[in-house]
């Protein structure tokens, strides 16, 4: 079941959209401002966002830019102001579609379906190549890593270690398992190679390497990402 996030500070508009989407079998989450929408996307799998431009805390255009930095999910923008639509259609926001208020809910529903169809047709391979852990996005096909939307430069071995750990969040890998999987050779028990590479990864990815949010140590066992 696809989950759609509706972000609008007008509760009546949220309610109307919610009813139409729910009647079509979608799961619907709501947000009253851009910051709440961004927080929801960072913690919950969302397949499409309907985003109003004029909202408190964080406006829709700013929220759209921040969402696009961490996700490729379809975004449909809503606005009653033509000047906002001009900004959106300039494609600087990364929005996929827009509608001017007041709008016909049936037309919005049709656009939601069109965006989800498009995403399913062209996005499966791309989506399957992505590993997303909080604000960390690993693209296995492009061999790239982004943290908070900013590219992080990793060595091939660092990338291989990170990809191994992120492929199964929560699973603990011993130094031996990491070494033999990445280096493809027998592990030496006195070898601290894995520890050194983990330390280097933390220096690049963690705000405070001594209290890591991404690569965690399970003492006496190994390392995990969660």
Automatic annotation (TrEMBL):
Sites of 4-aspartylphosphate modification: 52
Gene3D superfamilies: 3.40.50.2300, 6.10.250.690, Winged helix-like DNA-binding domain superfamily/Winged helix DNA-binding domain
Protein name: DNA-binding response regulator
Domain OmpR/PhoB-type: 128-226
Residue runs in coiled coils: none
Keyword ATP-binding: no
SMART domains referenced in this protein's UniProt entry, alphabetically: REC (SM00448), Trans_reg_C (SM00862)
Transcription listed as a keyword: yes
Molecular function as annotated in GO: phosphorelay response regulator activity; transcription cis-regulatory region binding
Pfam families in the record: Response_reg, Trans_reg_C
Gene Ontology, cellular component aspect: cytosol; protein-DNA complex
GO biological process, one term: regulation of DNA-templated transcription
Response regulatory domain residues: 3-116
Subcellular location(s) per record: Cytoplasm
Primary site of residence: cytoplasm
Phylogenetic placement of the source organism: Bacteria, Bacillati, Bacillota, Bacilli, Bacillales
DNA-binding region (UniProt annotation): 128-226
Keywords: DNA-binding, Phosphoprotein, Transcription, Transcription regulation, Two-component regulatory system
């Amino acid at each position: 079941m696809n989950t759609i996030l509706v972000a609008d500070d007008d509760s009546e508009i949220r309610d109307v959209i919610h009813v139409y989407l729910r009647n079509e079998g979608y799961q619907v989450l709501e947000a009253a401002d851009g910051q709440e929408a961004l927080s929801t996307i960072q913690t919950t799998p969302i397949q499409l966002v309907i985003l109003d431009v004029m909202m408190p805390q964080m406006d829709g255009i700013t929220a759209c830019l921040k969402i696009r930095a961490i996700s490729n999910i379809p975004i449909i923008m809503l606005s009653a102001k033509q000047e906002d639509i001009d900004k959106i259609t300039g494609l600087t926001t990364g929005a996929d579609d827009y509608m001017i208020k007041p709008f016909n809910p049936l037309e919005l529903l049709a656009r939601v379906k069109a965006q989800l169809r498009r995403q399913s047709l062209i996005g499966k391979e791309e989506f399957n190549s992505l590993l997303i852990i909080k604000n960390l996005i690993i693209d296995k096909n492009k061999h790239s890593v982004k943290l908070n939307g900013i590219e992080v430069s990793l060595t091939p071995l660092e990338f291989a270690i990170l990809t191994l750990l992120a492929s199964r969040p929560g699973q603990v890998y011993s130094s031996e398992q990491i070494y033999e999987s990445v280096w493809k050779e027998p592990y030496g028990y006195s070898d601290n190679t894995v520890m050194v590479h983990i330390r280097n990864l933390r220096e690049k990815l963690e705000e405070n390497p001594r209290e890591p949010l991404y690569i965690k140590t399970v003492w006496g066992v190994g390392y995990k990402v969660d």
